[in-house]
Design goal:
single chain; alpha/beta; Rossmann fold
Length: 306
Amino acid sequence: MDFMDKIKRQREEEKKLTWEGTFSDYLKLLKEKPWIAQSAHARIYNMIKAAGITEKDGHKHYHFFDKDIFGLEEAIERLVEEYFHPAAKRLDVKKRILLLMGPVSGGKSTIVTLLKRGLEQFTRTEEGAVYAIKGCPMHEDPLHLIPPNLRDDFYKEYGIRIEGSLSPLNALRLEEEYGGRIEDVLVERIFFSEDRRIGIGTFSPSDPKSQDIADLTGSIDFSTIAEYGSESDPRAYRFDGELNIANRGIMEFQEMLKCDEKFLWHLLSLSQEGNFKAGRFALISADETELMWLSKNPLKGDFVMQ
């Protein structure tokens, strides 16, 4: 098989992975494969676990990191067992921001890069499949369509707890495009990609005087205000900030503690409450793993839970 044949074969395989249907179809799929409703933390933990685990002398070795990380087995074990594992079970650990601190070349950014590249591949597998409301810039969880008063009934039938509320844009689309019929809302399978800005966000601080909070939360689309008549209309807002596009996946903050204080307020709200403020809207729900690394104050490569 020559190289062009391999390209064609890969394109055909990617087409086979695509899926699109109504919310009603998605619920049927959820009955067969309940794991597709996993949280962002659970998806990362299952990705690491799927690569294999070896236990020796009471310690676990995670093969996911084998190719690029050496000599940090104890720190990696702490990372997985003290953070990702309990966070995957929806315990309060998930409300913490993971701060990686250590000297230059200590493996901080390498670990984050491995997690990002791993997620890009994992979402193309059966175990890591992710489904979102079609046309949503935040790739929102379709289960947010279920009204709060019906979520207890949903849990009794499906055994899945729903966290978060429908975003302002999708709430408007639900009424205007679908007439309030959630069963008709289109759902599609998505694949994480940092290059395409799907499920993976990266933020690096720059000059505090020039950097805009819109880099994180999105901004008003002034070209559409005349059409929709108000800045508070979600159709006149660009949900394209890093926190928006990292929803359902992972958000990397590089040297974040060097950033202006106002940027950290959004992180606290997101980590503690699972939402953040953007524009003239109610709080917007987001499910994402926040990873922050800082090359300062060497700590022998240890991880610090913050």
